[in-house]
Structure formats: structure tokens, C-alpha cells
Amino acid sequence: MNGVTKIQDRSPHPTAMTKAAPILEMRGISQIFPGVKALDGVSIKLYPGQVTALIGENGAGKSTLVKILTGIYRPNEGEMFIDGRPIAFHSAQAAIDAGVTAIHQETVLFDELTVGENIFLGHAPRTRFGTIDWRQINDRSKALMRELESEIDPTVRLRDLSIAQRHLVAIARALSVEARIVIMDEPTAALSRKEIDDLFRIVEGLKRQGKAILFISHKFDEVYEIAENFVVFRDGRAVGQGKLKDTPQDEIVRLMVGRDVQDVFPKVKVEIGAPVLAVEGYSHPTEFRDISFELRRGEILGIYGLIGAGRSELCQSLFGITRPSSGRLTLEGRPIGIRSSSDAIRAGIVYVPEERGRHGLALPMPIFQNMSLPSLRKTSRSGFLKAANELALARKYAERLDLRAAALSVPVGTLSGGNQQKVVIGKWLATRPKVIILDEPTKGIDIGSKAAVHGFISELAAEGLSIIMVSSELPEILGMSDRVMVMREGLSAGIFERDRLSAEVLVRAATGNQ
Amino acid sequence: MNRLLKNREILLLAIIAIMVIGFSTRAQGFASPGNLANIFNDTSILIILALGQMTVILTKSIDLSVAANLSFTGMAVAMANAAYPDLPLALLIVMAIGIGAFLGAINGFLVWALQIPPIVVTLGTLTIYRGMAFVLSGGGWVNAHQMTPSFLNIPRMSVLGLPILSWIAVLIVLGAWFVLTRLPFGRAAYASGGNPTAAVYAGVDIGWTRFLAFVTSGALAGLCGYLWVSRYAVAYVDIAIGFELDTVAACVIGGISIAGGIGTVAGAVLGSLFLGVIKNALPVIGISPFAQMAISGIVIVLAVVFNARAEKKAGRIILRDRAAQDRNTGEVSA
Question: Domain ABC transporter, which positions (chain A) (predicted)?
Fold first, then answer.
């Protein structure tokens, strides 16, 4: 049996789509992690021959849903049906066997293997003797590529292909299993407009074959171009779904942003003082270009943008992790050069990273040692560490942040996510900075803790700290910022004052959809 | 009691004590203070080297060149002593430490400036340093009669009931404890291994920290070069061959995580003593040297398994998502 012919077998009724029963239905799916309800009673249906767009901010639960559909997570509640029959995925293989396949944002492919090997890795066709059937691999790979209107040679190594071609290989791999439900997780993120057009032609082809497609994207123009249906996620709930052609874009933005912004973020009115930090013409060889802004005392500057817009990269270079290729930095009227993170810390600029596990904490080390690490200069006396000073410092900020821990000497790895975040923030506050850069400060923590973090950020601003807050969450940006810089594809797409802020303005600037 | 057992240093100490008691039922006088002092003296060099190794391992690196470094430095000081018997011993010791530190600095420089993985660098320099020892000596030996009496005897002199060699080990243990817990360098070493990215973000220069760790390890290896040659009263190219693995084993048994960032001086010392007790006990109770190697090997594997389990528990909360992803790719490609 040949997988390609099977795929072609399944393209019989391109017309009978709208009335068709859903291939896949999810009912009341919930996924709970300690401290976070990532998905809360989500119900969706995917129809054959139709594209359903899944829209939502980062952290709305899209990735969790994909992981459930591909058998990586097992939901705590809810049911799934395929063709009306209940089904549960106990493993990733079970999901594949059931006909679900996913093309991921960053596809896992192998540079040193050939196109054919990549496509059939894990399910290579065998000869009678149980060895790998190379001829079939090559023939079927060619057939799959032809189906994708491409002539990539299956014996070429992946590293010799362009990004767009690799993407095709990833799609071919997804289709090489007998897939009826195709999940595309931000497939256009790395593609140019022409490549996106090619991709959409492929998607149209998949539709004609009667496959159900779940299309995850931030970009509204693409969604309207390719999808029939939409589902909007917010805070782990499906807050709206329907037909795209009956729904204006503003309505979707409203669903995405949701709650009334001012109620959740009672921003403390702060007297904004003199300029503290001025950034002029900051550029990086690849990540961002010509960024200029000014930050004042007591001000919260929000930086909004899509993933990959260069926000974190900009902040990391302000903090000395990477070096800008050009640009000037002025702190309190004096030009400064920052070449390493210790320069930045000394100058009074600190960065609270997005991935606290990877960038923020040394998990095996005790809480107090993590907290004092950037402040050792201050807690040490004549070159010797003073544990008493370190503990005093840690205690001060642990109390202030309401850190819950058995003792300050336990390893940070034993704390919950929210408390780990407090250690990270405490560690940077302890350096008594002038400017604090918060990268996605509330990502991955539950709503209750979010409110506490927001209150705390306001408090810091009231004390005269200048804050740069990178966030992908519109309510957070709208609620907390005095001004917002929007970044798109490495460029500043405008700086907006608080009285001109609205979700629509920011989303349009970020997507370039003016 | 339960909490005591969870502290792995105390657990290891208890195991060593049980072993000593067990062996003394088979061999009279094994647990006598004199014999225990002997075992400690016998293990002194391993302890010193293990502490250097531990410093390197803490920073998420490894130094496989310590034994080769020891061999070269030992040969160099032995030849210097033989050629110029008038050189004061203090100068020779300073020379040994200096040469060792320089060889360590070469490792550190390659790791730091050229960003070559430590295992590759030190595997290379292992061969180079042994080769240098051969070139230096022309393959010849320096024997006891060529060495001066003070060169040979000072480490054996007994002070307050222990040979000076043992006292040197005690001093190094205290020094290592001080450096790793009381100096910013020690903290930087733990941070660089515990989470290199977080360390960079916190303003720690991990390249420099690793460099210093290699210099430390090299300096201690150099010191041991003299101690070894003096103890065994002979210098030739193949002394201490394969001993770098003993130092790594001592660290692993002592609970120093090979992934960096976890471990204590007490652990490294107890890990060394554990190996020292086994090495000294097995011949006494009549087990062949081949079985000794197998037994040491089994103990090392058990220690690694034990460590891996303990670490998995500690890191569970934050790694869950990552683990799920890994499992996914594993299953898809399986």
C-alpha cells in the first residue's frame, strides 16, 4: 500500500463540504497545570475541506490545544471524537495513527539527512527483508513533492535547501502519514509573501482533498484569505467562534482582547519625571534596525509586537547580552557604552528575562544565592562573600514580594513557578536599578498572580523606577503602559501615547495592516 | 533520621563507616587509628586532585589532563632536583605549582577563547602533556638515588601524628572549602554550571570563571606532581596513568553533578576516601586487583544512577514542558 495513493483516494467530494459532519470534535476539554488552567472547557469542531483559524494572544492556550491534538498532553477533562467516535490519544503515535498531523512553528527536521529521509524518518517503508526500501522512499517523496507543486530532489540534503523549501519538506512529512486533520502552527512566520502564496495554494489543495485544517496565525489578513471558520481563544477559553465571512475584523480583535481593560489594571497615577534613558538609532546586524526612544523617571514604556518582531533582542542588547552594530545610549544625560551584562548592571539597567528557567535562575542553587548573584559586589566585604549580608538582602526582597518558601536556603528548583518568578524579580530589584526591563512579566502565570505582578510593577514606577515592559498581551500593554512602542519586523512601527492607545491601533501597527 | 539520610554527604560517610567496620571483621586492625591515618595519607593525592577536578566540573566542564599534567610536572621537578640538588625545596614546589597552573591555563584558554568543548580540549592536552613528559625525559627515569633526601622525605615527616602529605591535603581541603563558599569566584563557578545563561544574565563572566577553574585544577595537579614523585620515589612518563578517571569517579561518587553546578567539598573528599578505603581494603581481604577495578566501576555506575534520580526530582517542576516536547520528538522519530 502506498500512502500517496491513499491521500489521493480521499479527495472525492469537494462540493459536499459545508453540510458535512465534523471530522474532529472536542467537547469541554480542560488542561490543568499546577497553578494554571491552560485550557478551560474548550469545545471546537473541525470540518472536512475547511480551514479553521485559531486566533489568540500568546498564552491563550493555542499551543496547549495543539499538544492535546497531537497526543503530547492528555487533557484532564473533556472528550474528543473522530468521525463521531470517541477517541483518546495515549501517545504521539496514537494521534498520528488517528490521522492527526502537525506542522510546527519550528519544524523538527534534520539538516544532515536527505529530503526523503526526513520525510519518512520513523515510518520508512521496508523491503521484504526488513531493510529500508530506498526506491519507495524516493518515489513516494517525489510524488509528495509533486503534489506540493515542487520538484525538490528527495536525495538532496536538507541543509542545502532554503527555509521555504524546508517548509515544504515539513509539509510533505506531515502528509506522508495518512493524515486527515492537519494542524499548521504559525506556518507563515518565517515566509515571504510569495512563499506564503505558494503555501496557500497547497492549503487549497489540501482542502480539495477533504482534509480538515487547523490554521494558527497572528496575521488577520492571512486568516481572512485562507480560512472559513474561526475560533478565538482567550485565557484558555474559546470565547468566540463562527464563520469568518460574517465577522468583521474589529469583532475578532475585540474577542481577542476581551475584558474591559481599565477595570483589571487600575494603573497608579505616577508623576513622570526627567528623562532617564535615551536610545538613539539602535541597530543589530540581523534582529532590529534604527530603534530610538526615550524613557522617563516613573514611566512604564510598553513594547508590543508579534513574536519575532525583535523586541526581546532589542532588550537583550540594551542589557549587554548582544552588542548593537550602531546606536547611542544615554543614561541620565551621560552617554554610556554597554558591552556586557555586568556593565549594564553597574550602570543600573537590569533585565528580567522571559524564560525564567533558562535565563533567570540557577535551579540547584539556594534562593538567597540566586537573589544575591548580581549584587555580590555589594554584599561582599573586601572580596569575601558574606552570607549574612546575602541572607539579609534576600529576606528583604522575599518579604516585599511575599515569597513563599520553606527557607531561603532551599534550592530555587523546589519552588512553584510563581515563586520562582518572584525570586527573579527580587534578584534584580536587589541591585537597586534605575531602569528595569521586564520581558513578558506575566507569561505562564495564573490570573491571580498576574494581578499581583501588575500591582507590583505600578508600585515600582511610583517609586521612581523607569520600566520597559515587553508583552504580547494586549490587555497588559494597554492597562499598564504610559506609552507603547510597537515593533514590526525589527523596526519601530510607531510610539503611541496613552490617550491614543487602543487594541485596534496596536494590532494594526504590529501586523502592518494599516 | 530520614532527613539525615537525604543528606548525601552524611549518607556517604555512613557507608564508608559501615565498610570500614565490615572490613575490620575480616582483617584485624583495619579500623585502627593508625591504619585509618594510613588510608587517609594514601588517598591525599586523590583528594587534592579531586578538589581541582570538582572546581572544573562545577563550571560544567571536565579536566581529563590532570594526570598527564601531574606526570609532566613531576618529571620536571624531579629532573630539576636531580640536576641541581642545591635548589631549595620551596622553589621546586613553587615551580611545580607554577608549571601545573600554566598547563591548566592552556586548557582554560582553549575552552574560554576558542570555545572548544572541555572534553575535547583536555583529551588533546592529556596526550600532549604526556608526550611533553616523554620529550623532557627522553623516556628515562629519575630514580630515588638521584633525588635529594629533603625532596623525598619532607612529605613523609610526621607532624602531630600525621605525615606532612596528609597535612597538605587537609590544608587544600580547607582552602577549597573557603574558595568555593567564601569567594565570589566560588559562587561564580556554581552559577556558571548551574545555569550558564542565567549566570551571564547576572553579570558573571563564565568564560573567565572556567579559565580560573582550569588554572586551579592545573595548579593542584602540579602540586600533586611533586607529591606523587616524592611519595613513590620515582619519576617516569607513565606515572599516574589513567588517574584522571579516578578523580572524576571520586567527584561523581561524592555527589558532584557531572552537569555542573551541584556538589560540595565534603562530597569530593568523601568520594575520594570511599575509593581509598576500597583500594586499601580489597587486597587485605584477599580480593584480586581485577575484581577491585570491577567493584570500583560498579560503585561509580551506582553513584551516577543515584545522582541522576536525585537531580530529576529537584528539576521536575520547570522541566515538565521541555520533557514533554522531548518525549514527543523521541516518539515521532522512533
Answer: 24-260, 259-514
